[in-house]
Amino acid sequence: MSRAPETYGQPISSVTIRGKTDLKISHSDFDSEAMSMAFLGEVEEYNQALGTLTDKEITIPKTGRYYTLGFRNFTSEGFVVKDSADATLALNTDYTVDYSAGLIYAMRGGGIGDGEVIKVSASYNALTGKKIMGATSPSIKAAVRFEGVNLENGKTCSMEIWETTLKPDSEIDFLSDSHVETSLSGSPMVVEGKDSTFEVFYEE
Predict the structure, then answer these.
(1) How many angstroms separate the CA atoms of 62 and 104, rounded?
(2) Would you list the domain boundaries of the chain?
(3) Along the 204 residues of the chain, how does pLDDT read in single tens digits?
(4) Alpha-carbon span 11 to 1, nearest angstrom
(5) CB-CB contact of 40 with 135 (8 Å)
(6) Distance (Å, whole) CA 8 – CA 6
(7) pTM surpassing 0.90?
């Protein structure tokens, strides 16, 4: 900035420096790998063996709420719930069950009191899948390669980013009425031996 009386406060010269490039990747594919990136987590195998509960005690601190049975994928056949005096409780009167999620709901005004311990006997089926351990990583370090085709002329286009750090920048609405989309954003980084942070190739 000039300090001369006739040009005080005006720029004498300016220098433009290269700024960072922003990268944003949006997707609506919700396999386990995509979900793990959206949650900054790690994917693990989930395996539940076939099994049974016999008079498993579950404390009900307050009615009108769901409580976990410790397993998933229960069968309705042979599902029995008793109170602390071993009297059998009635389904849809004293309690309801989400068999798939493995949750029992103690109904208000039924035969289960606040703070009571109930006993559950039931069978659950085997279950396999993927489990995501959420928020185990602060960010995702990755290389990104895009291969595309111009649908108008059929020519190819590709982009390669040698290194970038990505983080989720959108929330996931599991109750959305439309396809859920999540996105990751970051900036390509300088890599030794490269003259730019990314390259784009377009077929002439």
Answers:
(1) 12
(2) 15-45+132-202, 50-125
(3) 667 777 677 776 565 556 778 889 887 777 888 888 888 899 999 999 999 999 999 999 999 999 999 999 999 999 999 998 999 999 999 999 999 999 999 999 999 999 999 999 999 999 999 999 999 988 899 999 989 998 888 999 999 999 999 999 888 877 877 777 888 999 999 899 988 999 999 888
(4) 5
(5) yes
(6) 6
(7) no
Cα separation values, 119 from 24, 71, 77, Å: 52, 15, 16
Q: How far apart are CA 25 and CA 5, in angstroms?
A: 52
DSSP class of 15: -
**Both tokens assigned to 94:** 């004293």
The structure tokens listed for 196 are 């730019």
Distance CA 91, CA 74 (A): 15
Tokens representing 155?
């020519």
Alpha helices, DSSP H, located in the chain: 32-38
Q: Are 120 and 71 in contact (CB under 8 A)?
A: no
Given a contact cutoff of 8 angstroms between Cβ atoms, the answer to whether 161 and 184 are in contact is no
* Residue 163 and residue 144 in contact, taking contact as beta carbons nearer than 8 Å: no
**Rounded distance between C-alpha atoms, residue 54 and residue 70, angstroms:** 13
